[in-house]
User: What shape does this take?
Amino acid sequence: MKKTNYLNFAILLLMAFAITGFNFEDPSFQENGKEYIMFILSIILISIYFITRFSQNNSYSPVKTTTVKNLLILPIILLFTITVSAQEWGTVKGNTVTMKEIGPVWPGCEKGTAAQRENCFDQKLYAHISKNFRYPAEAYKKNDQGKVTVNFIINEKGMVEVTSVSGGSKALQEEAKRNIMSMPKMAKPGMLAGKPRAIKFTVPFTFKTGK
Assistant: This one.
């Protein structure tokens, strides 16, 4: 193995050792992660400098441009990942750690930031309720109207569980519950501190015959 290859391998080994020692869920890493990555980036840049100088003095072992690019891409990706992860995970200010609850992900809403996924969830939920809304035939004939409120959770497995239904007649309550229970299984459940969490929701239904 050429000397340059030994140096490249040593750098990659150092990066792997440093990076795998980080716990991305650790609040201290969330607070100081950028500084850690900048430190690694500095080591890589210094190493590239010495490799380049070495290769200039050894014509048989030039440093490939792709190798340099690969060494630079990894810390940049990690730095971006830490920034996004910290925003979604929560905040750390001094000795105060604020955990942020992340909502479940509706099928088809997997891409994007937490805010984009949440907005997509709201749109999908509204579309689902509108598409599946049915006015019970007998209730319509009797001019049975009212507002029904459905409280439900999306559990740790991404499944819907109705906890309570209030308001309106029994027929209207059953229809509102049916609508919510027909929701699909979520692509991902809600999360808190990196663990699945049941998330509570409240949806109102207004039944009007227009008569």
